[in-house]
Amino acid sequence: MLLAALLCGPAVAEDIDIFAGTTEVNTNLPNIIFVLDNTSNWSRQSQQWPGGLVQGQSEVKAIKEALAAQVGKINVGIVEYVTGGSSADTDAGYVRYDLQELNATSQLVLNGILDKIYADINEPEEKRSSSNPYGDLPWDFYNYLSGSDHSNNGAGTPASLADANGYSSQWDRFEAPLGLDDACADTYMIFIGNNANGSIAVDDSINTAALKAAYVAAGKVAQDALAGEGGTPLAMPEFTTVETET
Predict the structure, then answer these.
(1) Which domains does the chain have, with CATH numbers?
(2) What is the pLDDT of residues 59-71, one digit of tens each?
(3) What residues contact residue 239 under an 8 Å CB cut-off, 6+ apart?
(4) pTM value?
(5) Helix (H, G, I), strand (E, B), or coil: what is residue 4?
(6) What's the rounded Cα separation, in Å, for the pair 133 and 198?
């Protein structure tokens, strides 16, 4: 809801510039962006997935199968942790697959990406180290939607994997995928984490300040705990079931 408030609030002159999306987004369709936690935990087999698959393989297999029936019904994109540079660089995120309509052509490209992740799940370019903070990745998700600067000036972005269409300046500034006419369309982040019970690092002070600024920009009051400060943060629901009658 914070994201919606930020993107759909009253526009001022400088705000108009952030909506410069040039991708093939169908404005009549909802936007689904998968944010993948591609830390080292996603190549573990301890979760006992069927067929001996590791965590990340099961995730991309499920995404591929779920989207098979959604051609022509949604716009879809993928954001992940960066995997290049030093360990300090990899707290940030990058656009793996720029938001666009899922049609027969784009589905082939997307499936190719998912298949590569599946096959190369243990390769360094497909995963980053563990003990990751969870602040910069969703922050770069917002920076992507708003066409803002990358949280780490593009450092660590794997050029061989990043989708150039998601950037206006490679790799330090994102290209907003949503234009003025669809900035307030239904946009959903589907975050798939792999470290809920592991060692989650505290976000740095720069990220904390950025998150607070986002709340202020939306006319909201920041939660009583952000990035290691005192107080109790909002709980994230582990599972939600929605039932409808047909």
Answers:
(1) 2-12+23-217 (3.40.50)
(2) 999 999 999 999 9
(3) none
(4) 0.79
(5) helix
(6) 11
